User: Fold Precorrin-6Y C5,15-methyltransferase from Streptomyces yokosukanensis.
Amino acid sequence: MITVVGTGTGAPVAEDVLAGAALVVGGRRHLDAVRLPEGAEPVVLGPLAPALDTIAEYLGKDLPVVVLASGDPGFFGIVRALAERFGAERLDVRPGVSSVATAFARIGLPWDDAVVVSAHGRDLRSAVNVCRARPKVAVLTGPGAGPAELGAALTGARVPAGDRGAAPGPVAAGGRVFVVASALGDPGREHVERVTPAEAAARDWGTAVSVVLCLDEARALGAARTVAGVPERPTRWALDEGEFAHRDSMITKFEVRALALARLGPRLGDLVWDVGAGSGSVAVECARLGAAVVAVEKAADGVERVRANARAHGVDVDVVHGSAPHALAGLADDPDAVFVGGGGGELPAVVAECARRARRTVVVAMAALDRVPAAREALTAAGFACDGVLLQSSRLAPLPGDVTRLAATNPVFLLWGVRTPVLSKGVDE
Assistant:
């Protein structure tokens, strides 16, 4: 049997839990905080594989094992690895209070509406994008993915190459605050501090950080929830044009938007660019579906319109005032997906730059037939598998006499490119 004990957030490990253990596995600070049973072998938990092999040796001899972990070991913790290797039926889990619960308790906030994301041993970009998109996020940190790196990524999210006098977006402006919780549960070392992302980026935080809370404090309390954690997806998308402020019907029509969203696939943890945003309808819809979004718009009134639509729908959209492709050079982070809804004569260059940087997908909407070949060539030249469709729709429209006609909308070409994976050759090929 493996007894897995959560500790490190204030609850001491009872001596009877350790009694009789032949092997005790844990981090250095966990082992230093307990009195090992006589004859027990301590193993400092570093790389996981050797520790699991050692545990297997003791289990093979039917010797009891204790694993010490931080907080709740079933929450982004070692329970998963142990259950996968040895089976859940061989585990006796004694959870402690998680660092996330403790950190929110320290600042007096509920956390059933918080999104929890782990950056420990994982790519930091997903955590960064979740922080951009959601008002209440807990980030579990790790080496190379702590408050400094998270703060640097957020504050460096964009350096506008267009109009540098434009008001920055919500994250770039410091609209988020960090609560950095270190050494939780240690009476002599525990420290909880509020800092801006820029202040966090300028500090050396050492190795004691337990968790970072990234908050939009104006929305940090949140409403009562039925489902905890990740927010429910909206019940509707491809919203009617009337649900957005726009100028002279210059807006991506909902039929086009529906297919564009299907091809973009925006989700929590993604970063999406809406280039030539216009009213920002695509940007807002991607944000409603959970993605972090940067909208690039060259018209000053368009910039304000995008911001107004984002506020009206309760989402965060970082708006860059500038013309593509020049403005794209100031966007520090490569997107997962890009929607191009404008570009004029610069369209091939815009699509080429978006294709160069997009990690997954580029979707291009065009009304002009003459621009289709150049946009397609830009996608295929960048190594994307390209497909497309001409969308023509007719909507029901009333006529006098309580009858209905079909009113045609303008046809739109929608192209999409999907990045094809690069297959590495084996040594025998």
Q: What stands out?
A: The first strand starts at residue 2 and ends at 7. The chain has three domains: 2-97, 100-219, 241-419.
